Amino acid sequence: MNPTPKSHWKTLDRFVEINSHWVKLIAEHLETTEGKTVEYWRVERADSVVILTIQADKLLFPPPMYRPGVAEATLDFPGGRVPAQATAAAAVPAIIKRELGVIESAIARIEPINTIGWAINSSFSNQKLYGFVAELQPTATVNPQLIGAEYPVTPDGIRDLLKKLTCLQCRALLLEWQNQVDFRV
Question: What is the distance, to the nearest Å, from the Cα of residue 12 to the centroid of all Cα atoms in its chain?
Fold first, then answer.
């Protein structure tokens, strides 16, 4: 009979910790369940929110933004970090206002795509991703200068959008939402 394996590795020491506003970098020596000592680096970050923003059966995007990690501007749904002591849902209106210039009263409804945060990279980070769909009032004014792209909420529109989206988080939430609404592409 095999004993039940340990579910956690033991932290032996932390030999680096660098803190910034955006991220905490931690380096530790860990003991695995097999008794082996390994050096492990990880980051701690605030959770993220990505919002599929819809108005008049179109998905709205802010202009592409430069992303240092990939050294190019990418098309992404509105998104951002969840402030300390806030819920993911509470962060949604402020993100939509910042990225699309839409005030909270212009949002007809906000629905979660996932109610339990998804681990973005469970081996390297504690950060979780929450997704929402925000439907804007049909008459809400959106500054055209803040619209980087629009895609119709149709099978062809989503198919075209998937050819442009390189952000895995955006793609995953779009596909999860598509499955939830039983939208066939």
Answer: 32
Cα 80–81–83 angle (5° rounding)?
135
- The CATH number of the structural domain formed by 48-180 is 3.90.79.10
Task: Give tens-digit pLDDT for 118-141.
Answer: 999 988 999 999 999 999 999 999
Can you give the residue ranges of every domain in the chain?
Answer: 10-44, 48-180
φ and ψ of 25, to 5 deg: -105, 130
Q: What would you measure as the largest C-alpha separation in the chain, in angstroms?
A: 67
Q: And the tokens for 51?
A: 């919002």
Q: Phi and psi dihedrals of 180, rounded to 5?
A: -65, -35
Run of H or E residues at 164: helix 155-164
Contact indicator for 43, 25 with CB cutoff of 8 Å: yes
User: Per residue in 44-76, pLDDT tens?
Assistant: 999 999 999 999 999 999 999 998 988 999 999
Counted residue by residue, the chain has a size of 185
- Supply φ then ψ for residue 91, to 5 degrees: -80, -20
pTM over 0.85: yes
Strands 48-55 and 128-136: parallel
